[in-house]
Amino acid sequence: MKTMVEEIGKTVEGDLIINVGPQHPATHGVLHLVITLNGETIKNVEPHLGYIHRSIEKMCESLSYRQFIYSTSRMDYLSAHINNHACSMVVEKALQIEVPARAQVIRVLMDELTRIASHELWWGAMAMDLGAFTPFFHAFRERETINDIMEETCGARLTMNYNVPGGVMADLHPNFVTRVKNFLKLYKLKIHEYDELVTGNIIFQNRMKGVGFLSAEDAISYGVTGPAARGSGVSCDVRKHFPYEIYEQLQFDEILETAGDSFARYMVRLREMNESIKIIEQLIDMIPEGDFQAKTKAVLKLPKGEFFQSVETARGELGVYIVSEGGTTPYRIKFRSPGFSNLSALNHMATGEKLGDLIASMGTLDLVIPDIDR
Amino acid sequence: MFSLESLTTIVHIWLNKTFQPNLALLLEFVIVGVLAITLFAVLGLVLVLMERKVAAWIQIRLGPNRVGPKGMLQSLADTVKLMMKEGLTPDGADKFLFNLAPYIVMISAMMVLAPIGFAKGFQIWDINIGVLYVSAISSVSVIGILMAGWSSNNKYSLLGAMRSGAQMVSYELSVGLSILSIIVLTGSLSLNDIVLSQQNGWWIFKAHIPALISFVIFIIAVTAETNRAPFDLSEAESELTAGFHTEYSGMKFALFFLAEYINIFIVCAIGATLFFGGWMPLHIGSWEGFNHIMDYIPSSIWFFGKTFFLIFLIKV
Lengths: 374, 316
What we know:
The structure holds two protein chains of two kinds.
Chain A: H1 4-10, E1 16-20, E2 32-38, E3 41-48, H2 56-60, H3 68-71, H4 80-95, H5 101-129, H6 134-154, E4 163-164, E5 167-168, H7 176-199, H8 202-208, H9 216-221, H10 227-230, H11 238-241, H12 262-284, E6 305-312, E7 317-324, E8 332-336, H13 338-344, H14 346-350, H15 355-365, H16 369-373
Antiparallel strand pairs in A: 1-2, 2-3, 4-5, 6-7, 7-8
Helix pairs in contact in A: 4-5, 5-6, 5-12, 5-15, 6-7, 7-12, 12-15
Chain B: H1 5-18, H2 21-58, H3 74-84, H4 95-111, E1 117-119, E2 122-123, H5 130-151, H6 155-186, H7 191-196, H8 203-206, H9 208-225, H10 237-240, H11 250-276, H12 288-295, H13 299-315
Antiparallel strand pairs in B: 1-2
Helix pairs in contact in B: 1-2, 2-3, 2-11, 3-11, 4-5, 4-11, 5-6, 6-9, 9-11, 9-13, 11-13
């Protein structure tokens, strides 16, 4: 491993190397960026990973197919429910378990609530990166309502662990429908504040427009997915292209912006929240009756073979790949996390721009560090 | 009405009678210095608490509410905490400059106080180039900031200091030009003359469009010059952690912090003096009765009221 001294020795005279992170307010976690600056202009950004590597993939190899799902909540903790969902689906796919209709609807409802909560947090954190402190509190006001809903039904606010192979762990709380409807009301009451506070703000727009440009070709070649890629005009929504659960029957749009700059990515996320609201509205009144969990064996044994399932998390495409030897634990498990590929595009986006613009670009990538390191 | 001139004159005469002239002058210096420092300390505490309370109100939270009634003593507690803390000096720092920088920033902030008229007949130094003096001395604090950034031996500090320097120098120009319009209208650089010239109406009302334009420019430029959001490039929490005072701790950090708030107060006081008539009550041309009623409100209340209004404008 290179030491810092060696790196400094290699730079051209006049360059300044600064270490953003591992403890830095802008990286939202323990990400370490080694930035080569010329004045304030960025010449190179090198992310150093591994500060929060917990070896989740290796750990999963010694856990049973019921247990390994829980460790994935700790990957992308802001869309924990969607991670669990992906893992449950791989197991169901391998064992050909039919998930009851009620469980499917509950899962999708929870997915979309999680997506909104994640985007809310991102919106607040993004504005804070650019120096505005107030939006953070406004975002948390709505997010808190979602967390309360989650707490009531799943028993946890962040690491839900609500999905099990064959359905969900418990039935919905009797208050669930009313509380979600209250949330929808609150959201519609407050969403215009988001535009008034931040989107329409001329300072904000000037800092976002034309900053961190990523072309559609580059987005594809770096493997960028999710809202970050859709901001560049790449249609990549897994819910549309490879529909899972009941997404096929739902009416919602895939949000696309073509500008490819930070502001486009910002708009994609903001509009995506409205799409999620649309999905929730379609489902909330017609949650079918029935079982919330399919009958499964006490010990799950996956047949020999390779299984893959991808879902659309709040940050992009999460793929779960399992190689089974036919036992009770996976032989090998691999997660394709959206954050890792999205981060790889950062150097390309930020080179040649100012230090302040790097923060804006990084903010719109919506990086969750435990998702990158796993 | 409510002039403090008689009080200051009595003190001046009594001192001169009791002591030798040189000693009397020295004592006056000491009195003024003690008053100024007290004012600073109180202002710092009040402004910090004000900002936190108003910000909390905007951000739908409560703000400080534990220490003292309604959290009034919060900033006092913070000050005590800062005084108890260890003042660290980083290993690679230029120790002399590192320790000198906060004092330069602080002293330059204090010196600007001299020509400001706080109330009728209560001005420390009625210098005939008042406005020029203010803009000259307030620029000195840039040196302190650059010094702090350079001597900390920290790249974040250096970047923050450079940004701060560049920003202050560039916005100083627009502040100067906006002040110039009032100087042209008054025909004097003395802050006392500027206040007196607004006897029959404040410049912001009397001078119509020119004053209005320069007032808007003044407010924006001054926000930038005091490094407040959205012009807080030099501190840019999200990029540079804390800018030029990243490495400072304890009382030295407190001095920077205090100087920032004092600078806000001072620029707002200047703004109030130039555009809103300083301590001059609201007078409207020939409305004698109205003017008399307004005179019953003490001039210091007028001055601080206007200043705090401008501080509110800048901060929010």
